[in-house]
Amino acid sequence: MCAENIYVDAQSLKHILVLSLVAITFSLAAAFEPSPLQDFCVADPSSSVRVNGFACMDSKLVRANHFSFSGLHVPGNTSNPLGSRVTPVSVAQIPGLNTLGISLARLDYAPWGVVPPHVHPRATEILTVLEGSLVVGFVTSNPNNKLITKVLQKGDAFVFPVGLVHFQRNVGYGNAVSISALSSQNPGVITIANAVFGSNPRIADDILAKAFQVDKSTVAQLQEQF
Question: Cβ distance 171 to 151 under 8 Å?
Fold first, then answer.
């Protein structure tokens, strides 16, 4: 084989390797949730098949109501200790969202109502204020734990990166409403206080006392709230 052919083959191999690397990189970037391999995969919660998501319903049984939800115009009941209510619209409410990697929620706030610190383990959230004024914020990861916060008015939007602790509070004297879009069909939610002090079974009080640098009686009082 001549030197010229060897050089051409080497160049071709280099191009193939580069293209392969690019393809793998884009595949990883796009694989946060699996890309659908068909037009839709309406969730079938009754299926005994266990997958990362839900098994697909027989497409012959699919109807328009599998892709729709009614009620986002209805205010949520905020008569609770937090003064807030979340109306989710995820795959549990719209089976047609299965494999599509998106969901949303309506959030209602009484005056000074709070959506307490929480995380979405599987989704970034973008929130838009429809009515009222909200103070929102998230905290960066260790070791900095920097608080990023802002007061939002009607029409303003704010992003909460995936997995970071965040919160919202109505800072007005009237009711407030926001809509959130999330980058998962099933974003999940972990409310920090509930998870730490309301776990089942409970986390040992001496662990929590040392973690929060308080005495065990304080831990017991907090656990009783949840």
Answer: yes
In this predicted structure, the answer to whether residue 23 has a pLDDT above a threshold of 60 is no
Indicate the helix (H) or strand (E) that contains 101: none
Q: Which residues of 39-75 are buried (b: 16+ CB within 10 A; e: fewer)?
A: ebbbbbeeeeeeeebbbbbeeeebeeebeeeeeeeee
pLDDT digits (tens, 9 = 90+) for 99-151: 999 999 999 999 999 999 999 999 999 999 999 999 999 999 999 999 999 99
Instruction: Check pLDDT > 80 for residue 155.
Output: yes
Give yes or no for residue 31 having a pLDDT over 50.
no
- Rounded distance, CA 29 to CA 66, Å? 29
Q: Which residues neighbour 110 within 8 Å (Cβ) at sequence distance 6 or greater?
A: 78, 79, 83, 84, 170, 175
**Residue 196: strand, helix, or coil:** helix
* Token digits of residue 225: 């709230």
Q: Are 83 and 114 in contact (CB under 8 A)?
A: yes
What's the maximum distance between 2 C-alpha atoms anywhere in the chain?
A: 84
Contact 168, 189 (CB under 8 A): no
Burial zone of 15 (CB within 10 Å; 0-12 exposed, 13-18 middle, 19+ buried): exposed
Residue 1's pLDDT is 54
| 109, 180 contact by CB (below 8 A) | no
CB count in 10 Å sphere of residue 99? 22
Q: Which amino acid is at 154?
A: K
